[in-house]
């Protein structure tokens, strides 16, 4: 069996989940990492038996810029296992979007999963999903893959039931840029600490950082924090715009959620 794992992962949690999933599959497994902008220049051609697609949830859905990219991928009847990785707040309409994507792009959806990853904006004061995926999440991701494999082996191509999102519609219709109203841009606060290594420039999923000045384009920045987390000098800092937002955020993500799989 040939499997193509297509994933986006700005801060590594989605990558950890798909790596665990790959360990539960038999046959040839190939990874296509679409995190960096140059990887999304060309359309993906599908030539395998199973596609595993994994994207983090931004604003209770698949981020618009990624949906715009994947909507050009045609399945021609290939099996699809779709995965949303989210920060313990909610996966919103993302799995419903995956289902719609499978229908319109001629994939056979045979599995879906919503896995938890440490929230991008988690901190010591608001430790939402801190340290996740943990060992138990990794085991569950591997078991999910074993179950997908079993389903394929037995010729069971039933489409799983995807739960309906119960959030008010307007929340899931806010633009990607909505996060900018709540989260500050990661500025270099300590110019003397920055050694101009360029790691943040190379890591940005949307090419938002100027390689000369290291300034960030406000209109491009996703607030994904890849640049903050990669900086070896901890020179970039960011945060929520108002202290009260941290309280709201912490409350929303306080109760530990379990991974959910649908087969
Ligand atoms: C702009 C933005 C919006 C997010 N929105 C949500 C959300 O609606 N629900 C949620 O639970 N987590 C949300 N998160 C958290 C991420 O889904 C989560 O941290 C995920 O594990 C990140 O994946 P990565 O490490 O592969 O980049 C958001 C993160 C960002 C950057
Ligand atoms: S500049 Fe914005 S989009 Fe680019 S890595 Fe930093 S937070 Fe993410
Ligand atoms: S990663 Fe940090 S040290 Fe390197 S250029 Fe960016 S801000 Fe400066």
From TrEMBL:
<dbReference type="InterPro" id="IPR029039">
    <property type="entry name" value="Flavoprotein-like_sf"/>
</dbReference>
<feature type="domain" description="4Fe-4S ferredoxin-type">
    <location>
        <begin position="184"/>
        <end position="214"/>
    </location>
</feature>
<dbReference type="InterPro" id="IPR017896">
    <property type="entry name" value="4Fe4S_Fe-S-bd"/>
</dbReference>
<feature type="domain" description="4Fe-4S ferredoxin-type">
    <location>
        <begin position="215"/>
        <end position="241"/>
    </location>
</feature>
<dbReference type="InterPro" id="IPR047964">
    <property type="entry name" value="EFR1-like"/>
</dbReference>
<dbReference type="Pfam" id="PF13237">
    <property type="entry name" value="Fer4_10"/>
</dbReference>
<keyword id="KW-0479">Metal-binding</keyword>
<protein>
    <submittedName>
        <fullName>EFR1 family ferrodoxin</fullName>
    </submittedName>
</protein>
<dbReference type="InterPro" id="IPR026816">
    <property type="entry name" value="Flavodoxin_dom"/>
</dbReference>
<dbReference type="Pfam" id="PF12724">
    <property type="entry name" value="Flavodoxin_5"/>
</dbReference>
<dbReference type="InterPro" id="IPR017900">
    <property type="entry name" value="4Fe4S_Fe_S_CS"/>
</dbReference>
<keyword id="KW-0408">Iron</keyword>
<keyword id="KW-0411">Iron-sulfur</keyword>
